[in-house]
Amino acid sequence: MVLTDLDGVVYRGRNAIPHAVEALTRASLTARVGYITNNASRRPSDVAEHLERYGLEVSPDDVVTSSQAGVRLLATLVPAGSTILVIGGIGLTSIVEQAGFTVTSSAEDAPAAVIQGFSPDLGWQQLAEASFALADPAVPWVATNMDWSIPVERGIAPGNGTLVAAVHQAVGRMPVVAGKPERPIFDAALARFGGERPLFIGDRLDTDIKGANDAGIPSVLVLTGIDKAKQVLAADERSRPTFVLEDLRGLSEPYPVTHRHDGDDGTRFVTVGDATVRMRAHVIRVERAGDDPMNLLRAGATAIWDSGLAIYGLDVDPQLYGGE
Question: Is 214 a catalytic residue?
Answer without folding.
Answer: no
